[in-house]
Amino acid sequence: MSQTPSEGRSLWFEQALTPGDWARDVRVTVADGVIASVETGVAQAPNDEAHGVALPGMPNVHSHAFQRAMAGLTEARGPGGDAGDNFWTWRQLMYRFLDRGGPEEIEAITALAFCDMLEGGFTRCAEFHYLHNDPAGRAYADPAELTARIVLAAETTGIALTLLPVFYAHSQFGGAEPNHGQRRFITDVDGFADLVARGRRLTAGLPDAVVGVAPHSLRAVTPEELAAMPGLAGDGPIHIHVAEQTKEVDDCLAWSGARPVEWLLADAPVDQRWCLIHSTHVTETEWRGVAKAGAVVGLCPLTEANLGDGIFPARDFVENGGRFGIGTDSNIQIGVADELRMLEYSQRLALRARGVMADSARSTGRALFDRALSGGQQATGAKAGLSVGMPADIVELNTSGIGFAGRSGDAVLDSWIFGGERAIRSVWRRGRKVVADGRHIARDAIEARYRKALSVVLG
Fold first, then answer.
1. Formimidoylglutamate deiminase N-terminal domain: from which residue to which, for each copy (predicted)?
2. How far is CA 7 from CA 27, 28, 155, 206, 324, in A?
């Protein structure tokens, strides 16, 4: 998809969620991909494009795009018999999935995931990119071959990219040798530094691109290797999987005498640049420490439910100043409303209450959306919102459906998130419409490449 600057255009919306609050009769003027002006309470002019309800595009704080092709293929009971499946049996299936698939297939699968994200209301993706080597575990002639394919998929779809090359060197706490299933992920510190530098060069021409780093987990890095990561990140974000599973917590305790988040807070420079992905199994002392450090927790409620991870204590965390963003992780289902709904419902099930994430000023849907937007901006290193100077990343809801009858303001968000309406009609990324009538403008070509890629990957 061309990334040349967009021409000036004027979009008029019946309602828009601006940084201050909801506004009616809103004209957003776009020039060179950036919001040049926002006028409220104005009549539609002859040269305005008229639309329904405008929302700022949401950042996706955590994605493994290649796993999009696995959706629906891991739902049979594994070798555990009566013990059933768990995260660790799922991981073995994921490793086997990587036995095939080269650069062309990875790019095609990633493009479909990014296409789905835009259709689902995400306008930026933080891609936690840990697939570096070929199916045999050898480095490509260009070590950043697969990084380049992620960038090409972002160009094809138009999504904004926060590229997070992943450092992965070990199979278990304490620097254990990697296993065969991890062969496509493995690098060393020098090779990783080169990957990060190449990623910065590859994204130099991609509008609004951000590059950070992602030490995969405390299982996959030693303390010495982790200490090198903030310097390699520069001004970019630092993401890490942590405390997703109880086994991980137990293994960390056996290795260090501390729980994973406890160890990070004591032994790593956790601050506002950090995004702790999942953090499912945390004590009150730990989540209070994360909030105090100003880090973001990256929640992926659909994946966490699919993998049986558990439930993060989101209500207590946010009521004590904690910040979160939402991600799609394994990309089994992709949509802003879907992740926010699952987040709220998981809290309701855990606490046996309703309206858990609401507050005295905002409805449940509005509070969820606002917090995820704010935390997502911080975690992806990028600004967003319907205000002057921001990239024109806008999602339009079509509220003509019966599920929106009589709704305005926060009730629109509540009806979209909890009412089941598939309402996204248009999406603009830097002022260029990439989704029209609910469908990405390049979906036919993207799907054709994806089908071809699956014939290789699934054989």
1. 14-52
2. 16, 14, 18, 18, 35
Helices (H), ranges, 32-99: 87-97
Element containing residue 452 per DSSP (H, E):
helix 443-457
Work out the number of other CB atoms within 10 angstroms of the CB of residue 22: 17
Per cent of the chain over pLDDT 90 is 89
Residue 278 a catalytic site member: yes
Compute the chain's Rg from CA coordinates: 21
Q: Quick one: three-class SS letters along 385-441?
A: CCCCCCECCEEEECCCCHHHCCCCCHHHHHHHHHCCCCCEEEEEECCEEEEECCEEC
Q: At what angle do helices 260-267 and 284-293 cross, to 10 degrees?
A: 40
- Looking from the CA of 98 toward its CB, the CA atoms found within 13 Å total 22
CA–CA distance, 376 with 359 (Å, rounded to integer): 19
Give the active site residue among 132, 278, 281, 440.
Answer: 278
Query: The domain 9-56+387-444 is classified under which CATH number: 2.120.10.30, 2.40.50.140, 2.30.40.10, 3.40.630.10?
Result: 2.30.40.10
CATH 2.30.40.10 segments of the chain? 9-56+387-444
* Cβ atoms of 429 and 114 closer than 8 Å: no
CATH 3.20.20.140 domain range(s) in the chain: 58-380
- β strands within 257-334, DSSP E: 274-278, 296-299, 323-326
pTM reported for the whole predicted model: 0.96
Residue tagged active-site, from 208, 309, 329, 414: 329
What's the pLDDT tens digit per position in 83-121?
567 776 777 777 777 888 899 999 999 999 999 999 999
Active site residue 180: no
Specify whether domain 58-380 bears CATH 3.20.20.140. Answer: yes
| pLDDT at residue 78, rounded to an integer | 64
Q: Which of 71, 73, 54 is nearest to 63 (CA)?
A: 71
Residue of 59, 299, 237, 28 lying closest to 160 (CA atoms): 59
| pLDDT under 70: residue ranges of the chain | 1-7, 78-84, 88
d(CA 98, CA 67): 10
Tokens matching residue 312: 């993060």
Q: Which CA distances in Å does 402 have to 134, 337, 395?
A: 50, 18, 20
> What whole-number distance in Å separates Cα of residue 427 and Cα of residue 397?
9
> By 3-state DSSP, what share of the chain in percent is helix, strand and coil, each rounded to 5?
40, 20, 40
Token couple for 296: 């973001």
